[in-house]
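WARN  no MSA supplied for this record, continuing single-sequence
INFO  ligand: 2BA
INFO  echoing inputs
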Amino acid sequence: MKLIYAIVRYDNEDEVVSALTKQHFSITKLNTTGGFLRKGNTTLMIVTEDEHVQECIDIIKKECGKRQKITINMPYISGAAMMNYATMPTTVEVGGATIFVTNVEHFEKI
Ligand code: 2BA
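INFO  complex generated
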């Protein structure tokens, strides 16, 4: 049994959750914030049997689309506002999803 963490963009959340639910995956949705951009994103926690992990990842891939490059200004360095950096453009990739798969040692519902 595995626990899949999928960090997705807010924009994709509804479609991913609907598609996964339709295929009978159980999901816990967490409102999270990326440490780098400090923007809200959504983390989905999905526990499933090993043989369903790939199906789950395929659905997430399909619904989240491709990664895109965006250019942003960097208002924060080490947690503090740095006015000198506010106009410095930085290019990052966003979109798609970031997925971690971990083993579940014990699963129980009481
Ligand atoms: P953020 O931390 O806000 O990162 C947004 C995007 O900024 C990242 O997209 C990446 O393209 C870039 N980025 C992140 N950290 C960076 C750094 N130290 N230097 C330069 N560029 C950096 P994604 O890789 O698609 O990540 C999207 C979100 O997924 C992240 O939002 C974070 O919430 C989560 N995430 C990604 N990798 C993670 C990891 N190894 N551990 C925990 N969370 C992660």
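Helices lie at 10-22, 53-64.
INFO  checksum written, moving to next record
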